[in-house]
Design goal:
Distance between the termini: 66 Å
Strand content: 5-15%
Oligomer: single chain
CATH superfamily of the largest domain: DNA Cyclobutane Dipyrimidine Photolyase, subunit A, domain 3
CATH architecture of the largest domain: Orthogonal Bundle
Number of helices: 20
Radius of gyration: 24 Å
Mean pLDDT: 95
Largest sheet: 5 strands, parallel
Low-confidence stretches: none
Shape: globular
Order of helices and strands: EHEHEHEHEHHHHHHHHHHHHHHHH
Number of domains: 3
CATH topology of the largest domain: DNA Cyclobutane Dipyrimidine Photolyase, subunit A, domain 3
Number of strands: 5
Structural class: mainly alpha
């Protein structure tokens, strides 16, 4: 029995450092079977979008190299996780399976696997490797679930205990030899079309680059984070979201490093506090999904299921996706997304509001596009962000708050630098007109080389009209539900 291996199952935790489940499996002293499963068959596990598949490909290759350098091997398998785990445990005689917990609908898969392992005489050991605090650990003073972020954040700070970092294994001696899929056969790159050609200029997926980004952020951009994080033309955010989603870095690592930067005087308490509150917002999103597994499909505030959404014309939807709406800040964001697999958070809110309020198309359709095109597409964060903006979620911007894309652009991109970068056909317009080119004098447009309806589209919808339409629709649905 002492030679029987234990199995470690990688999921959204593609790292070796501060990985509590991996550290526990390694500490048994038994041979390790290291496994990653691409499971696209379960109804509880949402298939990855195209941009996420691109990231996964690079991240797994990096992880394979790191494991090989320590003497181990990562076994890759594609198929139903329940079948693959059972098969490997039977073939290897593994005495236990270790993993870090999931908190969305996929936890149902883990529950079935745990029950099956117990039935077959094997153990299952799970750990928290992805959140600051687990969703079932926080309750309101009355014992209920949090529905608003601010009290959630206060409770988290009052109760959180950051554990010591789980040690990274120095060696990973390979367990029994097992066949592994060739990752090339998984076809993880986008196709028809392959829009990922520019991703590599911005991203290096993997644990080592996650650490580098965190170090550089805490040594530089953090100093202007509170104000700068809202300005899309500035490099004032950490851009850690895809690394956190794939678990190439843990939120506990981020917390420790941030507090160290504060204690050493490298960053002010104000900036660190704001940054950590954004990390906690990620926890809040997972908290909501844990307590409402339907959040990705249904309005969190169920009364808004009665909203009479428009289907949207094909031309409208394509204009939004391709950054051709005629609203420069919206178009800049959508083009940044297509080119890099990422969009600045302030602009995410603007483009989502335009979709759900100006076009009055169901937020879920917009969420689906983000799911396919974001490298940081996260089941909890994506749904929570869309529902917050659409006014249907917890802690949401009220349904009657409709972002004005013109004023948002002028406030957060006052010089037009962000629009000029991503909508270059408008780059020569003065800041006064770059967010409202349809109001610019003909002479100004001519000098800037802009021909509305030709080099740049007219707005596909009038914002004032769309705002009134959205408010009437939301209000009517709310009253109908209340009645």
């Amino acid at each position: 029995m002492s030679d029987n291996p234990v199995l470690y199952w990688f999921r959204d935790d593609l790292r070796l450092a501060d990985n509590p489940a991996l550290a526990a499996a390694h500490a048994t002293g038994r041979p390790l079977v290291l496994l990653y499963i691409l499971d696209e068959s379960s109804r509880e596990s949402r298939a990855l979008g195209g941009a996420s598949r691109w990231w996964l490909d690079k991240s797994l290759r990096s992880l394979c190299e790191r494991i090989a350098a320590k003497g181990g091997k990562l076994v890759l398998r594609k198929g139903p996780a329940e079948t693959i785990i059972a098969d490997l445990v039977a073939k290897t005689g593994a005495t236990a399976v270790y993993w870090n917990r999931r908190y969305g609908p996929a936890r149902k898969i883990d529950e079935r696997i745990k029950a099956a392992l117990k039935k077959d005489g094997a153990e299952a050991h799970s750990f928290n490797g992805s959140l600051l605090v687990e969703p079932f650990a926080l309750k309101t003073g009355s014992g209920g679930d949090f529905k608003v972020f601010t009290p959630f954040w206060k409770a988290l700070q009052a109760s959180i205990t950051i554990p010591d970092a789980a040690p990274e294994p120095r060696t990973l001696a390979a367990g029994p030899k097992l066949p592994s899929d060739d990752i090339d056969t998984w076809d993880l790159h986008p196709s028809n079309p392959d829009w990922s050609t520019g991703f590599g200029e911005m991203w290096i997926p993997g644990e080592l680059d996650a650490r580098r980004r965190l170090r550089e952020f805490l040594a530089g951009a953090i100093r202007n984070y509170t104000d700068g994080r809202n300005m899309p033309a500035e490099d004032s955010t950490s851009r850690l979201s895809p690394y956190l989603h794939f678990g190439e870095i843990s939120p506990h690592q981020v917390w420790r490093a941030a507090r160290h930067a504060e204690e050493s005087g490298e960053a002010s308490a104000r900036e660190i506090q704001k940054f950590l509150s954004e990390i906690a917002w990620r926890d809040f999103s997972h908290y909501l999904l844990y307590h409402d597994p339907e959040m990705g499909r249904l309005s969190w505030r169920r009364q808004f299921e009665a909203v009479e959404w428009r289907k949207g014309t094909k031309a409208e939807l394509e204009a939004w996706k391709r950054g051709q709406t005629g609203y420069p800040i919206v178009d800049a964001g959508m083009r940044q997304l297509w080119a890099t697999g990422w969009m600045h958070n302030r602009v995410r809110m603007i483009v989502a509001s335009f979709f759900a309020k100006d076009l009055l198309v169901h937020w879920r359709k917009g969420e689906e596009w983000f799911w396919d095109t974001l490298v940081d597409a996260d089941e909890a964060n994506n749904a929570n962000g869309w529902q917050w903006t659409a006014g249907t979620g917890a802690d949401a911007a009220p349904y009657f708050r409709v972002f004005n894309p013109i004023l948002q652009g002028e406030k957060f991109d006052p010089e037009g630098a962000y629009v000029g970068q991503w909508v270059p056909e408008l780059a020569k317009l003065p800041p006064k007109w770059i967010h409202r080119p349809w109001e610019a004098p003909a002479a100004v447009l001519s000098v800037a080389g802009v021909t509305l309806g030709d080099t740049y589209p007219q707005p596909i919808v009038d914002h004032d009209f769309a705002r009134k339409r959205a408010l009437e629709t939301y209000k009517g649905s709310s009253q109908e539900t209340a009645a």
